[in-house]
Design goal:
Length: 123
Amino acid sequence: QVQLVESGGGLVQAGGSLRLSCAASGRAISRYRMGWFRQAPGKEREFVATISWRGGSTYYTDSVKGRFTISRDNAKNTVYLQMNSLKPEDTAVYFCTLGGVFSGSGSYRPDYWGQGAQVTVSS
């Protein structure tokens, strides 16, 4: 019954920006941790960012710190990932997630996943 739908992906040149949105339905996100993961072709899925249910705590993988910002609008049941200063190595399918306990990226296992949005960064 939970659906997470990502939007806002596309093609951008290196140094450019994109904002991904994740619209949730079937369940209010206001009491759940939300997150973003990504998977590049031939690579393992990797953690990108997460945000607590109140939005007061965020955590990012080192490679995106200072460039990406996760945020949420519980009234709109939506989570965002603002991506600035994009690099070709950011090219991946980005997945929105709901739920799970975060005590470190290695043990973070969200309960629900979106189907992904393609982000392609050209050099």
